[in-house]
Amino acid sequence: MKSFILYLKDYYRSTSKPALIITTLFVASLVTFNYCIGIEARIHLINAWYFEILAFFGFYTIVLALAWGLQYEWGWKEKAKPGDRFFQKPMIVLLLIAPLYFALKMVHWDLSALLPGQLQFPWREYTLMLVQLPLKLLLLLVVLYACYINQWLKGDSFPHSVGLTKKNFKAGPYFLLLLCLVPLVALASTQHDFLAFYPKAKNTAFINAYAHPLWLWKGLYELSYGLDFLGIELFFRGLLVVGFLRYAGEYAILPMAAFYCTIHFGKPLGECIASYFGGLILGVVAARTRSIYGGLIVHLGLAWMMEFGGWIGQHFIH
């Protein structure tokens, strides 16, 4: 925990205070606007999948462009030397690839045509649900590797270029941080908006009468759900922080945190607000350690704690 505090203190001392304040206000306005009109919900209502992808791509691109513009205007310009360039060509390419990938991730992939015809209800529906997130993770790995091959991402190796390194990683503080989050999850597990969303495993309730033993099929779903958090850490802390450090240094952290907050727009308000500050903290840690393993421990551990908290809340509180 001491190292976390030192990382955050160093970041606060070195970062542009106007950029930090204005970016936070920008995110606050986005959150307010979303929970008044439902930005993400409205995009999901678009019937044609290609227009849905286009809408998500446009929204995420605007968020990233404005967040990076704030770093340029209120941070980098003040410290830039004559001849310095902030927006380099590879960086711009990555800034277009990032929202495109996540727009593809946000839509439902109809993979029913790829499944064997003999699969019937409920196993057809269950399989479609189970393979969604692992396949989206696979797509992300392909995209990141293509970026590495084209030298838009730099590192001694592909894993190093996206923060999959244990060089500066110590697991203990992250498990301690998870322990500190237990009371917050316990409190959240008593709230109606939290229990309306968690546990996510309740989305597989349609197999309850067919699956034996039930815990095995629920466990497979939780593993699939957990893989999504590897993808989240690879994308936000691996690509958008570690991958961008060579272009813009720690100016990459705030745009990542802003983008990260927007992907929580369909979740309870408290979780959405916390995601901005959590993303900021994990971004600072990833920038200082060049590793995403700590963030993965926290994120995955928190996700499964929320699943357990939601199950407890559903069965014993409400």
Please report the total strand number as a whole number: 0
Number of domains: 1
Judging from the principal axes of the Cα atoms, what is the shape? globular
Low-confidence stretches: none
* Helix and strand run: HHHHHHHHHHHHHH
Q: Give a quick account of the main beta sheet: strands, pairing sense, barrel closure.
A: none
Tell me about this structure.
- 72% of the residues lie in helices and 0% in strands.
- By secondary structure, it is an all-alpha fold.
- The protein has one domain.
- Helix 1 (2-14) packs across helix 13 and helix 2 (17-37) packs antiparallel against helix 13.
- The longest helix is centred in the first third of the chain and has 31 residues, at 49-79.
Task: Write a concise synopsis of the structure shown.
The chain has 318 residues and is mainly alpha-helical. It has helices spanning 2-14, 17-37, 39-44, 49-79, 89-106, 123-149, 158-161, 172-188, 192-195, 214-242, 245-248, 253-262, 269-289, 293-317.
What key phrases describe this protein's structure?
72% helix, mainly alpha, 318 residues
Strand and helix map with partners:
Elements: H1 2-14, H2 17-37, H3 39-44, H4 49-79, H5 89-106, H6 123-149, H7 158-161, H8 172-188, H9 192-195, H10 214-242, H11 245-248, H12 253-262, H13 269-289, H14 293-317
